[in-house]
Design a protein that fits this description.
Helix content is 0%, strand content 40%.
């Protein structure tokens, strides 16, 4: 069971155009959330866009191996630091040092072809 709540976003903040996140890919975007500036991972899998904080719950480090470059395999996102493996569709860690924990999801909405932070998290 999750023991955290989603990050409260600044509603309506545009992140990027929908087509800039290709099917089966991930990218990083910098945003300002209620807690301050953050890096988000945007993932597009099975036609769905998801956003997670770019922070591994294991050690609090970024998941990308270079800025905006992520290790993706099948339905999984792999942390470049310690190899924790996360399901892209729900952020659950299914292997590695933080098995059973989740990435922190940030709610999105699509508006006029843009990916934006949602009003409700």
């Amino acid at each position: 069971m999750d023991t955290f709540s989603p990050v409260p976003p600044r509603a309506g903040q545009a992140l990027c155009r929908v087509e800039s996140v290709a099917e089966g890919s991930a990218c990083a975007v910098d945003v300002v959330l209620a807690d301050g500036p953050e890096s988000l991972i945007l993932l597009r899998r099975a036609g769905q866009l998801r956003a997670y904080l770019n922070i591994c719950p294991h050690a609090g480090r970024r998941l990308d191996y270079a800025p905006g470059q992520f290790l993706l395999t099948n339905d999984n996102l792999i942390c470049a630091v310690h190899g924790a493996t996360f399901n892209q569709l729900d952020g659950l860690c299914i292997g590695g040092p933080c098995r059973g924990e989740h990435l922190r999801e940030v709610a999105l909405q699509i508006r006029d072809g843009m990916v934006c932070l949602a009003a409700d998290a």
